[in-house]
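REQUEST FORM: STRUCTURE PREDICTION
Request ID: SP-0412
Submitted by: Lab K.M.
Chain count: 1
Length (residues): 333
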Amino acid sequence: MRTDNTRITCALAAALGLGFAAVPALAQETTSKIDGGDTAWMISATALVLMMTIPGLALFYCGMVRKKNVLATMTQSFACTAVCSLLWFAFGYSLSFVGDGPWLGTLERVFMRGTSMEATSAFAPTIPEMLYMFYQMTFAIITVALIAGAVADRMRFSAFLWFCAAWLIFVYVPIAHWVWGGGFLANAGVLDFAGGTVVHLNAGIAGLVAAYVIGKRHGYGTENFAPHDLSLAVIGTGLLWVGWLGFNGGSALGANSRAAFAITATHLAASVSGMDHARETFGARPDLRCGRRSRHHYAGVRVRAALARRRHRPRRWCLLLLGLYLAEVAHRI
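STATUS: Completed
RESULT:
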């Protein structure tokens, strides 16, 4: 009798053990909403955005500086990528996208602590949270790297690294939380689809202020500041053009119609800017056409950035008009 009771007890314990072991798996299977198509597209978009900085911006900037500053300018982009990646993984993501405080997030996800393989973010429920963190990391990297163009030939390398770390922590992270992470601007109704506020407006103001504070380059007006190799800038422009498809299309956070519209608008805006440039510089010297065309294409792909603060779809012809307008602005500059 005692043996039978023991067997029954062991059988019940085994059944309960199997049941409790199956509960997390079943719960995980039920609650997990990770979509394979969305994940695949976001992995591709993340790689494209990272490519915009290394080697896209690195080539774009180093082709426009003097020969003696080419390596330093290119290294700035690579060093910026490394520094921002580590800081973002350590605590930048957590302070930006975890928690619902009006000014700053929490440290709940420091070093991605407590994140499982199947965990998702409330901001991107169909892709792994680790991938969402990585995608937002590439945004943080290129935002800081964009400022490098404003301080090229003007700042020591060590000072630039300190600037990258400080600006990311004290400027980018809070603003990203305010607009994207559920901060007070998001609660006030501010919309930013693909970085029009957090990335482009933020980096533009920072670059303008940095250039004003540092002042003119040494030798400006007396030394030759001709670009070293505009072919490098053109290659960088092409990489930025292609990478921006992942930048804007990936902001849909999935493989859907919104992503398709974003990449189409981005490509058409760059194309119309390039054609307008060809019209304006017809008959000019090849080197002038080359340098100005790079700026025109760069301005064109940022048309979508100008519209990125709006979540609804603008009319198609508006994109073409904006492409022409920005091309004119780039030509006058």
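NOTES: The first strand starts at residue 120 and ends at 121.
Reviewed by: T.R.
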